[in-house]
Amino acid sequence: MNVFMSYSRADRPFAERLGSRIRALGANVWSDESDLRPGESFERALREALEASDGVVLVVPEPGTAHANNAFFEAGAARALGKPIVAVIPGSEPRRVGELPSGIGLSVFDGSGVATEALAESIVTALKVA
Length: 130
What we know:
Elements: E1 2-6, H1 12-24, E2 28-30, H2 32-35, H3 42-52, E3 55-59, H4 68-80, E4 85-89, E5 106-110, H5 116-129
Parallel strand pairs: 1-2, 1-3, 3-4, 4-5
């Protein structure tokens, strides 16, 4: 299973922990940090990674976070490609669910108070079912 993880820089520590756990379950997780080759076009690499993915994990950025719209843009591109999308809210703010775009078939997980291992298992299961 190939997983594309979209997150804002502010959520990088959470995304790295989650990505590591998803990898431990046998999935390949694309990361611009490790999979982007020097000199490679970021836009082309991003598109290729989205096209090759079996699903997308969107770590929902805090409103007002710098470049937060990039994560939503990537999720929109994934949706246009017909990829299943799982949204994860990393903090303990369930009210943020209402901030997510409706009608794009998101499965939403609250990442607060849940062991990263259990969260990763739930995400992988949701992506396999989708």
